[in-house]
Amino acid sequence: MEKVVLKADVRKTNKKSDKSKLRRDGFVPGIYYSKHDQPISISIAENLLNPLIFTSETHLISLQLDAGQEHDCIIKEVQFDPVTDRVTHFDLLGLTAGEKFQLEVPIQFIGSPVGIKEGGVLQQFLHKLEVECFPQDIPQHLEIDIQDLSIGDSIHVKELKFGNIEIINDEDTVIVAVTHPKVEAEPAAVTEEVIEGEESAEPEVIGKGKAEKEEEADEEK
């Protein structure tokens, strides 16, 4: 996998007001951390960061700081504004050669299931897999062949093997399936039979109320 060079500025403060100003100026506050380094507060231009976040690929990043430092890392976590969906904060995880680490990798399907031609519906339950690997084995995405799936077939985590990459997700988790199309139940027809010359029956009187009984007693007097 090729490294993507990403330049960042070191932030000197973590004040909320300073972070807000950075966002207004087109920058995103974030943090770089690793097992062997102290966390570093940084900021990156939004237009440089977005292509690495809004993508279906994993990227190995060469982070270059204004202090002359350089670190290999990946994007570990991203926070978004709930209204505008803009990136508001990010975490970069530093990598060390010879040490495994965990990350999420996007899934990419290969082929068109035969079950689709049979009238089935493709359902994708996972879009990324949690994996563990060495830095040199980071994949941009994980390919899964689905062309042999018929209606009723599915693929579970335990069925997948990716060389030196270990999948962390529960092995019984369903990733994708071809299911029967949903058929909406038709509302039951309500038929009403009308018999000519027959009046509707009056409701049966079960009992008399207290007030009615008192009125009858007064009439008898």
Q: How are the SSEs placed, and which strands pair?
A:
Blueprint lengths: L2 E8 L5 H9 L2 E7 L6 E6 H8 L6 E6 L4 E11 L6 E8 L6 E10 L3 H4 L3 E4 L3 E6 L8 E4 L8 E3 L9 E2 L6 E6 L30 H11 L1
Parallel strand pairs: 1-4, 2-6, 7-10
Antiparallel strand pairs: 1-3, 2-3, 4-5, 5-6, 7-9, 8-13, 9-12, 11-13
Features:
221 residues; Ribosomal Protein L25, Chain P; 2 domains; mainly beta; RNA Polymerase Alpha Subunit, Chain A, domain 2; single chain
Quaternary assembly: single chain
- Integer count of domains: 2
Helix amount = 10-25%
Low-confidence stretches: 190-221
Gross morphology: elongated
The appropriate CATH architecture of the largest domain is: Beta Barrel
CATH superfamily of the largest domain: Ribosomal Protein L25, Chain P
Overview of the structural elements:
The structure is a single chain. By secondary structure, this protein is mainly β. The chain folds into 2 domains: 94 residues, Ribosomal Protein L25, Chain P (Beta Barrel); 77 residues, RNA Polymerase Alpha Subunit, Chain A, domain 2 (Beta Complex), CATH 2.170.120.20. It is built from 4 helices and 13 strands. A 6-stranded mixed barrel has the order 1-3-2-6-5-4. A hairpin with a 6-residue loop joins β2 and β3.
In brief, what are we looking at here?
The protein is about 15% helix and about 35% strand. With about 220 residues, it is mainly beta. The protein has 2 domains: about 5-95, Ribosomal Protein L25, Chain P (Beta Barrel), CATH 2.40.240.10; about 105-180, RNA Polymerase Alpha Subunit, Chain A, domain 2.
